[in-house]
Amino acid sequence: MKKFALFIMLLHIFLSSNLTAKAIDKTCYDTNMKRDILVLMMSYPEYVIDVNKGDNGNVYIIMKSGKKILYDDKIEKSFEQKLANPDLQDTLEQIYPLNSVNDLMEKNFDPGRFRNYELLTEVYGSSRKQVEKNLVNVTAGGSFQFNKNNKASDSLKRAMKELQVLAGQNKKIAGCIYPCSGTYNYRTIAGTNRLSPHSFGNTIDLARDKRDYWKWATEDQGKQRLQSYPNEIPEAFEKNNFIWGGKWNHFDILHYEYRPEIILKSRYFGNCNNTKLWYEGVPLDDNKIRGYIEKIEKI
Questions:
Q1: Is the Cβ–Cβ distance between 45 and 92 less than 8 Å?
Q2: C-alpha to C-alpha distance for 29 and 41, rounded to whole angstroms
Q3: What is the mean pLDDT of residues 80-101?
Q4: pLDDT, tens only, 180-220
Q5: pLDDT band at 271, cuts 50/70/90?
Q6: Residue 114 lies in a domain
Q7: Backbone phi, then psi, for 147, in 5-degree steps?
Q8: What is the total count of domains within the chain?
Q9: C-alpha angle 143/149/151, rounded to 5°?
Q10: Within a domain: residue 236?
Q11: Handedness of CA 117, 124, 253, 216 (dihedral sign)
């Protein structure tokens, strides 16, 4: 009887702890979902106009066009599957590091490399013709075609203006910026049927070095390049809501991509933590942001 009583007690402890862990995981999931939707609304204010919960419990963001984009398809995916077909939750799962780096990221840590094409086409254009209608010239130490939607071209202009000044003072910075390798180029990523982010005109590749790309260089060469790369360049871009391919395990050191949702998630929220309010940290003096929070809370 004593052994049986001990068994029952241990079983009760195990089940209680397991249920507690699941409750914590559910709370963490819900908190991250709210934060993800908030940063999407903050990042694309002219395009993401609402949030909706379907009868099946699935959550969607509602675009200006009326299109509904699913937040989480609830499918367990491998790294390659997330690259091929990420939902919104997948795209924001990895927290982009805003600190400076001089070493390669851990295996398959590529924050921002998962791209939701439903969102990109809604914002920047769903065809070559539509994207090209949205391109403008940005002049800053060269002339670059860039998408004007969602203030992408304005953000590039600000980043390049700051870097022009720094490049005039530091030859090393100038050598990493000029000549620019390209911005808009409607094409697929080599070896895939996925459109390159360059197809949307929201991405710029700076001066090319043979150690810049994981397919061109060894890990040691990539690490050497990172260690010699001026921190001022990614800092200027990140300040203007661009992510840097130098902070990917599959490194792409010349690559900068306008992804405000990735930067805002990092700026205001890390992984799930124990703050009393899920939205703690965002600027609540902004009426629009308070309105987004109210919409999310209703759902």
A1: no
A2: 18
A3: 97
A4: 999 999 999 988 999 999 999 999 999 999 999 999 999 99
A5: low
A6: yes
A7: -70, 130
A8: 1
A9: 75
A10: yes
A11: positive
